[in-house]
Amino acid sequence: MTNRLAEAKSLYLRKHAENPIDWWPWCDEALATARAQNKPIFLSIGYSSCHWCTVMEGEAFSDIAIADYMNANYLPIKVDREERPDLDSIYMQALQMMSGQGGWPLNIFLSPEDLVPFYAGTYFPVDPRYGRPGFLQVLQTLRRYYDTEKEDLQQRKALIIESLLTSAVLQDGMTTELQDHKLLHQGWETSTAIISPSQSGNSFPMIPYTELALRGTRFNFESRYDGNQVCTQRALDLTLGGIYDHVGGGFHRYTVDPTWTVPHFEKMLYDNGQIVEFLASLWSTGVQELAFERAVAGTVLWLKREMTAPEGYFYASQDADSFTESTAVEPEEGAFYVWNYTELQQLLTPEELKELEQFTVTPNGNFEGRNVLQRRYSGQLSATLETALSKLFTARYGVSSEEEETFPPARNNQEAKTANWPGRIPSVTDTKMIVAWNSLMISGLARAAGVFQQPLYLELAARAANFIWENQFVDGRFHRLNYQGEPSVLAQSEDYAFFIKALLDLQASNPEQKQWLEKAIAIQDEFNEFLWSVELGGYYNTSSDSSQNLIVRERSYADNATPAANGIAIANLVRLALLTDNLDYLDLAEQGLKAFRSLMHRAPQACPSLFTALDWYRNSTLIRSTSEQINALIPKYLPAAVFAITSDLPEGSVGLVCQGLKCLAPAESVEHLLQQVQQSQNRG
């Protein structure tokens, strides 16, 4: 017997279709039913590759006693945060206000009449453990509270909604240009400190911070940090660590230790796109460590093999867990990726096994008796090691890496357990297309194509961009998701901002292709019409015609695993102003920075992407030159520059460099041009 979620397009929602809980999707009918029956709403938000979401689905959400009480006393609603990041953002902020911490699954209790939360938590066990109450006890206590403590309930909700509204409206701030440079210094210093090596806790890529730290190295700020060293170390940690899949390519989401050894094994498209872009940019600064190039190439092969739909777009993610055999009841974390020592002895020659000890391989292992591969040394791998890794690839996938051009996804647990896989049973792949995440990958591929001069990278990026352009408009409006050819859910701010950036990045990697700029302008027009805040400045998360049933209308400014939409959007506006000579874009960029200036002063640790936007605004540089000269500049690290190909140059010059709204004297040599470009990008 299935519930309403059996018809959902979302893999995460469908995973709950056989729960005894009478789940609803987030919709007008569900909200109206809760109000009519005077039932508090139990809102549960997660995503398909979330480990503890999966655990709770198999425990509390499958428990008959809990389901009976839930169905009688609450209106339960399930939301995929990847479908509705706006809802997730609002209620995650409420959770953090109430508990001081966040995470998924996000389980939150709302009053039906106004959708304001009054209690929230993350994972709830069936029975009391881990210092957490049993879930049935939580449900019973909160229902009694809702029924009997009306005055306290109203006071509690009033505090929460006041806090949410206050955080949604930021104070204006004004600074001079000199203060801007000092502010940029403050943001760079903060981000560089955040990504400096740590001795405790989990290790996340944190690419928005790394991007700002890298672009700030050209200013030679006085600091106790060596920005070049910090960025290089982050790249080494990523490309040598267990967070990178040295056998199959692609990066896992994070590691559970400070040594970058044991990952939480899911692979997210958004991480891989950002990491590829960062590694390519670092390479273009002159830090040309061969491990970086190998990791980029391996990630692109993984993307092409396992994460690219026949239509050209990219899938969203792969789970951390997989089945060890078709008869297994539950999947195991990391099973697809880790290696028993005895298995390695059987697969490899003694010489190969000896060479593999250049990785963290031991008889006792480093993860529950098994081995996660982590490189001990940088540089180029030996031919023997590459052969050993190829044998491990064949053992995992059942065919050699030369033969395996595409590897079909397991779309759910049933497919994973019943398909005839030639090697190990793979993790489930969430095959939905998310515009924002595809856009991050397109940007990464476009940058890597320019830096490493790899046409395949640009081909993959262009196919994905064309799919989005050709398929994500319904009745003239841009949409966020695509499920097997069906667009769904109106686009949100991150979809607009990241896709516009992706189009501009494609333009930057191939400036002769004017269609990318034309498409970016068209998308920007819609973005401005439906999401720009005339009163406050900046862009709302959701469009003006899809903000019903939101208790606040937020503007994304804080970076998390992905950049904040407003930071990317403001940088896009500066780039568009340079490329089109339309100063309306620059006016919007100025208003956007003004809207968030006080936040940047007060909490620079929250918003590295806004500082990246400030860098673009202060140091924006337009380079006009011939196709030949522009192509020579593309692989260089010019983080605040855009290119325009022209044959109409003053006699005797090789190019023109414009700083914002003024142009320098024509450059008479390539050396002169580069000198002007470098000076223009550092106008502190």
Describe this protein with a few key phrases.
684 residues, alpha+beta, five-stranded mixed beta sheet, 25 helices, globular
Give me the number of helical elements.
Answer: 25
C-alpha Rg (nearest Å): 26 Å
Termini Cα gap: 66 Å
Largest sheet, order of strands side by side? 1-3-2-4-5
Question: Which outline best applies?
Answer: globular
Q: What composes the largest sheet? A: 5 strands, mixed
Percentage beta strand: 5-15%
Number of strands: 20
Helix content: 40-55%
Mean pLDDT: 93
* Poorly predicted ranges: 172-178
Q: What is the structural class?
A: alpha+beta
Description of the structure:
- There is one protein chain.
- This protein has 684 residues and is an alpha+beta fold.
- The strands form six sheets. It has a five-stranded mixed β-sheet, sandwiched between helices. Strands 13, 14, 15 and 16 form a four-stranded antiparallel β-sheet that branches. The protein has a four-stranded mixed β-sheet with strand order 18-17-19-20, with helices on both faces.
- A hairpin with a 2-residue loop joins β15 and β16 (486-490).
